[in-house]
Write a structure and sequence with these properties.
heterodimer, A: mainly alpha, MetI-like fold, flat, B: alpha/beta, Rossmann fold, 2 domains, six-stranded mixed β-sheet, three-stranded antiparallel β-sheet, 9 helices
């Protein structure tokens, strides 16, 4: 027996970790076995050991996955940056000038209700097979998410704060930038987090539909050549990429919004 | 500010939010410079309406309102307004929050800081300047709001149930803080509350109002000596007499309202 007391929460955490690891191991073994014994045709489910090798090769040896991921990432970040800037700009305009929102409402409501992937053929026509059409699709998704969050954030400002500022003699412009805008930042930020994931979704969808580069294109190619192991390897890589993107946004949020 | 300084005058003021449904009716009230006056009454008696008229957030439909010799206007530098909620900005530290008013009123930055520090010390928060509101208790947050209000140097203070959201213990502490702040520089205060004990402890006069439509039932002078302390007054027989008197007048107002219905 050691003298130091053991934190029961720590114990509970390790138990969950262990259970997760055990479950994953059992699952992978069962998968490997099902595939090797042809209990399920490997054409449909691949084989964990081969998927692992694919992933390793694609990332560290011939860099196929990394190279295509850079295209996807470039498209995603560009679509995210443009969509966020435009979304925040229009959101702030709408918050400041409700008439502008009324004016744009029919157009934006229609576009927002439209399944954006349906625009892909048009974007291909306008921007070509390259990264431009992918950025356009990602932009069309990010823009509305960030726009709606910006408007919601700016609307939800505490009315008592505004009363206080009025009695302090603050001008409407100052109230907007010093109070409304800052108080909207947490809501805008949750829009940005969602917007980033949707930018990735748009770009991947665009690459799947028609492209020369990117993880989406790689997925279609691998699936087309019945390389199921390769498809799973890319999917795992995409999942990790998405998680890392969300984590990066969380870190940024923690830095920016320390006061929360 | 005009020749009348920091006095408050309300003459024959009525205000209705819907046609015929008066929130307040024929209110006349004069407060001298440096006087601390409370208005008590049940909720919905129009206390806050009176304050909002003085703050320039509402325009009176009948009658006239004067602060000094001028009509009220939101943002006047001689008026400071304090609400029941602390209204601290969560992204500003205690010190930055205490500097909000002076910042909006254009004081130079070094002076803002000096005043914020001075009043944070006076409300007993010297060690908490760098804390964000999330790290402060309700009572501490309202102390910051007090510092923000008093650092404005406005000779007229309008306070709308500033301690209404606090628990009983914290409230007593903050009443003492307010008494001290006010004793240092006697500003003209109109204080809205539904807590009779609080009104008696703090005020030179207590105005009792009846429920909707709000009319003034009585105007009771509180001649307790100053400086006062909340705890010492609890042992003072005169304080309890005055409290009973305010209570009985409030009851009259309530029964009149019931009879009218």
């Amino acid at each position: 027996m050691t003298g130091a007391p053991i934190d029961p929460r720590q114990v509970a955490r390790w138990r969950v970790r262990f259970a997760q690891f055990a479950f994953l191991a059992v699952f992978l073994f069962a998968w490997e076995w099902a595939s090797r014994s042809r209990f399920i045709d490997p054409l449909f489910i691949g084989r964990p050991s081969v998927i692992g090798r694919h992933l390793w090769n694609g990332v560290f040896v011939d860099h196929v996955i990394v190279k295509e991921a850079l295209w996807t990432l470039a498209g995603t970040l560009t679509a995210f940056a443009l969509g966020s800037i435009a979304g925040i700009a229009f959101g702030l305009l709408f918050a400041m000038r409700p008439m502008a929102e009324k004016f744009f409402d029919p157009l934006f409501a229609g576009l927002n209700a439209l399944p954006r992937v349906a625009l892909a053929p048009l974007f291909l026509l306008w921007f070509g097979l390259g990264i431009g059409s992918k950025i356009a699709l990602g932009f069309s998704l990010t823009f509305f998410i960030v726009l709606n969050n910006t408007v919601a954030g700016a609307r939800s400002v505490d009315p008592d704060w505004l009363v206080l500022c009025r009695t302090l003699g603050a001008s409407p412009g100052r109230i907007f930038f010093k109070v409304t805008l800052i108080s909207a930042i947490p809501t805008i930020f949750s829009g940005l987090k969602l917007g980033l994931i949707y930018a990735l979704l748009g770009v991947i969808a665009g690459e799947i539909i028609a492209s020369q580069h990117g993880l989406g294109q790689l997925l279609t190619y691998l699936a087309g050549t019945f390389d199921t192991d390769g498809v799973f390897a890319v999917l795992i890589f995409l999942g990790v990429l998405g998680v890392l993107m969300i984590k990066a946004m969380d870190v940024l949020e923690g830095r920016l919004l320390r006061w929360r | 500010m005009g020749a009348l300084g920091a006095s408050i005058s309300i003459q024959g003021v009525s205000h209705a939010f819907a046609a015929g449904a008066y929130a307040i009716r024929d209110i006349s009230l004069a407060i001298d410079e440096g006087q601390f006056v409370s208005i008590v009454g049940p909720s919905g008696c129009g206390k806050t309406t009176i304050l909002n008229l003085l703050a320039g957030l509402l325009v009176p439909q009948e009658g006239s309102v004067r602060l000094g010799s001028d009509a009220p206007r939101a943002g006047r530098h001689d008026v400071a307004y304090m609400l029941a909620r602390d209204c601290l900005f969560p992204w500003r530290t205690a010190r930055e929050n205490a500097m909000l008013g002076t910042e909006f009123r254009g004081l130079p930055v070094d002076k803002r800081g000096a005043r914020a520090d001075e009043f944070l010390r006076k409300v007993g928060l010297q060690g908490f300047s760098g804390h964000y509101p999330k790290a402060l208790s309700h009572g501490m947050r309202q102390r910051v709001a007090l510092a923000r209000t008093f650092s404005l140097e406005s000779p007229i203070l309008l306070m709308d149930e500033p301690f209404g959201a606090l628990d009983a213990q914290t409230k007593l502490q903050l009443e003492d803080v307010l008494l001290e702040l006010w004793n240092d520089e006697r500003r003209t205060v109109l204080f809205i509350t539904h807590d009779l004990a609080e009104a008696v402890v703090l005020s030179d006069r207590v105005i009792v109002m009846s429920p909707r439509p709000g009319v003034i039932v009585d105007d009771i002078p509180i001649p307790l000596p100053r400086p006062r302390s909340v705890r010492q007054l609890q042992k003072d027989a005169r304080y309890h007499e005055l409290y009973a008197k305010v209570w009985s007048r409030l009851e009259v107002g309530l029964s009149q309202a019931v009879a009218a219905k």
